[in-house]
Amino acid sequence: MSLPAPAPASAPLEAALADGILRLTLDDPARRNALSTTMMAALRAAVDTAGDDPQVKVVVIAARGPAFSAGHDLKELTARRADADGGRAFFTATFEACAGLMTAIVRSPKPVIAEVGGVATAAGCQLVAACDLAVASEAATFATPGVAIGLFCSTPMVALSRNLARKHAMEMLLTGDAISATEAWRMGLVNRVVAPAALAPETEALARKIAARSALTLKIGKEAFYAQAETTLDEAYALTARVMVENLLARDAEEGIAAFLGKRAPVWEGR
């Protein structure tokens, strides 16, 4: 079951492309940037489109207001309990859409960076974990608090358990307690923690550094990273050896090596 895509005018998402960096800003601060069906559809569409757009080198997911995202829209979910089936079909479609969004981020050929300035809870924390990288403000906090309201954060658990050590993930899931940005960095949920005023500039600098690399090389590397992570040691080495060979035969690898040996800047062609 799939949810219909919203009309562009209704999407609580702002998109801006500059110098190869696509900045997607969750823009529903009144609802703490909840991952409503509309928000998820808009974000999924933007991520999918970015993956096919050669002008986009890196995607940044940010948010307006004091919350990065409070997770699923509980009011939206609760309202559907009045449906004839008690909400089952809508709940199923909602979590299928959420899984589709998170896997689209992981499978996108473009690196995706979360810029977290405030609270990221439940599916909002899942969104951070699904991104390839994350930069957080010192003011940011993270939690999977579903256990406190009788709704275990089972789908956020998928992304969380793939970022954190198991016992760290289980503590967050079983207690529902919020952790600071510094603690999130210690656990491996975020890459960097900076002062609030430095959040956007730090994210921009990181995105620009990555955007300067070969788009083809980034695509090859990101795909291989996630593929090998789900295999055995022998399978991982076999897979990545094949990837290295194909990568080495690409024009950008030939150019990059020649540029390095010739002590000059490479000229990427994405092939």
Automatic annotation (TrEMBL):
One of its GO terms (molecular function) is hydro-lyase activity. Gene3D superfamilies: 2-enoyl-CoA Hydratase, Chain A, domain 1, Lyase 2-enoyl-coa Hydratase, Chain A, domain 2. InterPro entries: ClpP/crotonase-like_dom_sf, Enoyl-CoA_hydra/iso, Enoyl-CoA_hydra_C, Mitochondrial_ECH-domain. Keywords: Fatty acid metabolism, Lipid metabolism, Lyase, Transit peptide. One of its GO terms (biological process) is fatty acid metabolic process. It comes from the Bacteria. Belongs to the enoyl-CoA hydratase/isomerase family. May play a role in fatty acid biosynthesis and insulin sensitivity. This is Enoyl-CoA hydratase domain-containing protein 3, mitochondrial.
